[in-house]
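User: what does the whole thing look like in 3D?
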Amino acid sequence: MDREENRRYLLVRSGGASWGLPADQVRRVLRGLACHPAPGGWPHLLGLAQYGGEPLAVLDLHALVSGGTPRSNHRATVILGRRGDKFGAVLGLAIDEALRVVTLADPAQADSAAAWIERAVTVDGDSVNVLDTARLFSASEDADA
Amino acid sequence: MPERSEWRTHRDLIGPGLLVIVILAGGALLDAAANELREEWLVRAFLVVGVLAIVSYVMTVYLPQRRIARELRSLQERYRVQCETLERTLDELKHGDMVAAGDTAASLPDDMRGAVEGASRALAALIQQIQSSSVEVATAAGTVQRTSSELASASSQQAAAVVEITATTEELARTAGQIASNAASQADLAAHAEKTGDTGAVSVELAVAGVEAVRQHVEAIAGRADTLGSRSREIYRILDLITEIAQETHILALNAAIEASDAGEYGERFSVVAEEVRRLAERSRESVDSVRSHIDEFAGSIRGVVVATEEGSKAAQQVLNQSRASEKAITTLRTALADTAQAAREISLATQEQRTASDQVVMTLHDVSEVVQRITNGLSEYTGASERLNHLALSIQLLTQSFRIESHHSLKHQLSKWTGRLQDFTGNLEAVEGLLHDLADECPFVELVYLVDLSGSMISFVANPELVENRELPGSVAVGQSYTDRPWFQAVAREGRSAVTPIYDSLLTGDPCFTITVAVRNAGGAMMGALGVDVNLPNWTKI
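Assistant: Here's the predicted 3D structure for the full assembly of 688 residues, as structure tokens:
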């Protein structure tokens, strides 16, 4: 029998939905990160920002999961990086609000078939979608390639 | 019984017969004495003397006496003829026919003829003068009558106008009295209103002061509210700063929690602290939001107060402006009321004087009305006198027309001349009618001219169209109609003289008229009929 492992997630809100981002992949939460529009690229690419002296691609989470047009009125940006790779590539996710850090049981396998959603959980009665960050990084790497 | 002339002849022989008888008787006595004395020569001498006496008587007395008697009889005859002529002349004069009198007097001796003609001329001249005078009197009377009638009418209208003016002036006087009374009341009301205006002005001044105080208070409130607004904005800035700090704290707490997660079990306690910090930040933010909400309400209230105070200030300013305008208006009104009161008092005085003057005018108008009425009455009497004068002139004219004189104003003479022309048209009715037409045309005062025969039957007539116009002729005016019962015909038929009727109303025109009729004679002087004219009196002065 598989034993469930607890894992911490950063709860964020974007486009009216709550999302869970793996805390171990979150490098930093920033407010008011200046983002400059970049021509071409992904349709959900909000623009480029400067983080730690390096350019940072910032994606709009809501546009990413809904396929809509990126919005420029985000209030916070979550810097994501691969788990265990402190100095690897990072990616910015523009969100509306960073709520708090919660601990969720981490299932052995993902049970969601929806794109970008690893699974869906309920936190304090609210539905929370856990973002599939591995796929996000893979897609990012494919795009870079 | 012997005639008077035979008696005179016999009387003339009585003297010589007696003389012969005396001589014969004396001779016989002498013869007897001589026989006794035997002296025959004495008888013879006596006889010779007697014969001589008889012869001388016959030669010196009888024959001259017979001649004188014959001359005397001739004189008597001439005297009788002259007396008869004079009688006829006087008879013509008695009937007013001066022309016939003159004709008759032609056979009189020169002195008598001259005296008769002189008397006729003098009488004719007098009649003519009376005639023309009557026309002038009638014309003048007519003029006076028309003038007096017009003046009477005008004075009647004037009297009516004076009555109307009097009534109007009386009404004016009454109105003036009412105006004076109303003006006095108006003056009292204006004075009362002036006092009320004084009170109102004081009240308005107090109101202005009160409104000014309210406006100042409102402006003070607006200033306080503005200050509160400024403070509220400062509070907002502080709340924004606190919110910013809380958000930064929240982010820091999240990053700390994430770092604590990376630290594993070592970071558990730190993550708890980070969570507490995050919660504090969240509560701070919630508190700030709550404070912001309260401040929003407070700011809204302040804005409401500001708006209300601004509106109140504007309203107070408007009330102040209106109050000041009212104050000016009341001041103006007070001045106007004072002027009105003064004017009303002056109007009252003026109208009282006007009423007094109107009363005097009314009295004068009453006098004028009486005078006008007297004038009207006088003019009416004047009109009546003129009418009487006109009638008198007409009567004189009628009297003068009863004479026939050689004048174209003498109707009898004129008609007699027309009858002389008529005798030439015996049996020619068309010529007679034409002559009557000429007569009617020549005499515009004649409304009807007609010719009747000796039996009194109408032969022909002509009506004057200007006087008769389109009136229908009465049944009595017709050819063949008998006029034997008419006085004018009877007068002409009885004496063969012209006649003038009294005045009567014409059946033809309805106007008063009179008729003049003259006999129509033939060349032999025999009467054949009568020519008559009806004289229209309204036009008689055209004669």
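In plain terms: Chain A touches chain B through 13 residues (CB under 8 Å). The longest strand of chain A covers residues 5-14.
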